[in-house]
Amino acid sequence: MIYIIGDTHGDLRHFSKPTMVQAKEPKWTEKDTLIICGDFGFIWAYPEDEEEYRKDQERLDTLAKKPYKILFVDGNHENFEMLYSYPLEEGFGGTVRRIRDNIFHLQRGQVYTIGGHTFFTFGGAATLDAWRRQRGVSWWPELEMPTAEEMEAGRQALERVDHQVDYIVTHTAPKVVVKMMRFPPAPEEGQLTEYFNEIWKTTAFEMWYFGHFHVDWARPVGGCAVPLMDDVIAIPEKKA
Fold first, then answer.
1. Neighbouring residues of 92: CB distance < 8 A, sequence distance ≥ 6
2. What is the per-residue pLDDT for 237?
3. Closest Cα partner for 13 from 41, 45, 48?
4. Rounded to an integer, what distance in angstroms lies between the CA atom of residue 58 and that of residue 189?
5. pLDDT tens-digit profile of 198-211?
6. How far is it, in rounded angstroms, from Cα 39 to Cα 75?
7. Number of Cβ atoms within 10 Å of the Cβ of 180
8. Three-class secondary structure of residue 53 per DSSP
9. Are 95 and 14 within 8 A, CB to CB?
10. Helix, strand, or coil here: 89?
11. Three-class SS state of 226
């Protein structure tokens, strides 16, 4: 089974919330996969900050003991310098960063095959509370938003699959979806949400999952876009 959840922000308590208990997380096995829609947050402190770095490693080691796979797209609240220090390798039909043997960072603009389903993934978003953050300590503005090259790579990846995937996982959402949710537009991420509008219009998909807004909606926005925070969505693996 594949499960999808919203932001975790480096907090292990997300894995013991009632929604995870209801999804029977304690009984998940090596056949199961959890996908996190950005703001993973468990890779945060620099090694120079020995105490906080040690805590981060302990939290990652705790997740590494889970029998299931943990996959995540990046959000905006990530230490991108630390995250990008992990080398790229092949995985799930694309390239990933292996954090632990069962923890992988899914890259922007790629199509992966997970549990028999195809997923287009694209992390990144703008930090809207940058005024209270410190550059290079709790905010990495040069890396949180995608580059033109990453967006073009996403277009080419979708072209290779004839603009058809089963699911899309991002951190923020298409501009059209943000408007339907009646959230105020964020000019800082306008280029990205417009790019997602393009994908929304040109790609055939079943559901689009995203985090960022810290809300769970009872019904999909526009019929096929699902904002997530604590809710856990289950997708059965395709039978061979």
1. 71, 104, 106, 112, 113, 114
2. 81
3. 41
4. 33
5. 999 999 999 999 99
6. 4
7. 13
8. helix
9. no
10. strand
11. strand
* Domains observed in the chain: 2-235 (3.60.21)
Q: Can you give the pLDDT at residue 184?
A: 87
Q: Using CA atoms, how far apart are residues 203 and 215, in angstroms rounded to an integer?
A: 25
How many distinct helices (H) and strands (E) make up the chain?
7, 12
Task: Write the DSSP assignment of 204-223 as a string of letters.
Answer: B-SEEEE-SS----SS-BTT
For tokens 């996190």, name the residue.
36
Low-confidence ranges of the chain (pLDDT < 50): none
At 240 the pLDDT is 63
β-pair partners for 110: 121
Tell me how far apart the alpha carbons of residues 240 and 232 are, in angstroms, rounded to a whole number.
25
- Torsion angles phi and psi, residue 189, rounded to 5: -115, 20
pTM: 0.97
Give every CB contact of residue 44 below 8 A, 6+ residues apart in sequence.
10, 52, 56, 78, 79, 82
Kindly report the number of other CB atoms within 10 A of residue 102's CB atom. 18
Residue 166 is predicted with a pLDDT of 98
Q: Are the beta carbons of 129 and 149 closer than 8 angstroms? A: no
pLDDT tens for residues 78-99?
Answer: 999 999 999 999 999 999 999 9
Q: Can you tell me whether residue 155 is helix, strand or coil?
A: helix
